[in-house]
């Protein structure tokens, strides 16, 4: 397997590298580091900063007010009674009804008397200084109950509203404090214990007879459930037939439904009897996959590296997209309030579509690399003459093999998925644009096409998975590997179906076991050691469960790919050596 390994699909790896370079060029043009006549320079502040009533962006637009102030030096948006905003230097830290923020044109430079500003306030052109909280670039005033007495303006705090806000804020603060105080416990149980439980599960299912008992119990339970549902449905139909409140048609429908359930139970038994030998093979594949992962436990940590890689790419990609999204022309739309509308040139729209395509391609590329790494690791373990020599060092050698031989295949397979996902996104966008029109036939056609693209994507992902297994075993290029994998599926449809049934059962039990056990153990630990210190056990326990579930998902991804690879290794071994 290792000695005949060649470099595959190098051209597509070069294409991916060129695509990354082009994406970087688009991003740098949007940031202004590269001068471009095609893509305008963006400024993310244009997306988050507020608009004044002239549609100037506070802190961004170079606009001279009648008082001589430049909006570019006024980064905060302060609300007026009209619902519009004016740009100010800072949000008021205290309430002062003797000072006002007004529309730029309403302030008479030679006469700034309080009475004039009060008059403008009555016309919704001025707002007194209200203690405000800065959120992004907006000033959010506190909620006072304003009353007037003896011609003097003063404030009475609305106790009910303030108490509600404060109680909600205090509750949130307490939850965050709880999470911070037990952050290490959340990590230890949600991540550490979940990983340990995953390894324990792999060891347990290798015990003689355990996995067989587990799988056959689940299979029998499915048939028993169908029979039980049929019996209950039939008994209910007989009760309804003698009831005055139920119609006869409902009773008859339930009666026939009971026999449908009985028929499904019989059909299930027939299918299981027909593929029983394949189920035995599937159990063997699952057990051997568990042994392969146990021999190289570091393999279960590779999804963490994939996630970190995706996060790193997404951060850079997100920065580029923020600048690109803010490179449009900003206009203000007036209605009940003033809001921003950005219009983009055709080149900017195509650049955004390309950036979206690159996110799809890169994310799928990372997934493909992970699948190839697992597939090569398992194939080396399966065909090794001395499996005692297989260990974590073998996995390090696999990383070298995949990096220098098969990244092109991962780039090719992920490119196909990225193209399909991009087409599906375009169809969704067009469908939403047409949903408000009267072109119902076109909308229906687009929905059909979108569902078709979804099905194609699922099929291609399955074929890609088989292709990566073929590449791992035979070092085929992507096209040949996909073709060989497709015909292998056709030749062994029943085997693959049986493996799919068994693997789904095992992976579901594994996921449930890891998540529930980690969450319950974490809860009891928190209750025993932090019960009197925490305000609410719910939030830390919930976070432990979420982290444990994420770990189980990554674990199942490795386990599932390992099972698929081992099945193909078995079939290849069988076909190459004539069932010997």
TrEMBL record:
Tagged with keyword Signal: no
Record keywords? Glycoprotein, Membrane, Transmembrane, Transmembrane helix
The answer to keyword Membrane applying to this record is yes
Transmembrane stretches, start-end:
184-204, 211-233, 253-275, 296-320, 358-383, 395-419, 468-489, 501-526, 533-551
One Pfam match, given by its short name, reads Choline_transpo
Membrane topology listed for this record: Multi-pass membrane protein
Record localization: Cell membrane; Membrane
The terms under GO molecular function for this entry are: transmembrane transporter activity
The GO cellular component terms are: membrane; plasma membrane
GO BP, one annotated term: transmembrane transport
Q: Which family does it belong to?
A: Belongs to the CTL (choline transporter-like) family.
- Role according to the record: Choline transporter.
Q: What is this protein called?
A: Choline transporter-like protein
**What organism, scientifically named, is this protein from?**
Thalassiosira pseudonana (Marine diatom)
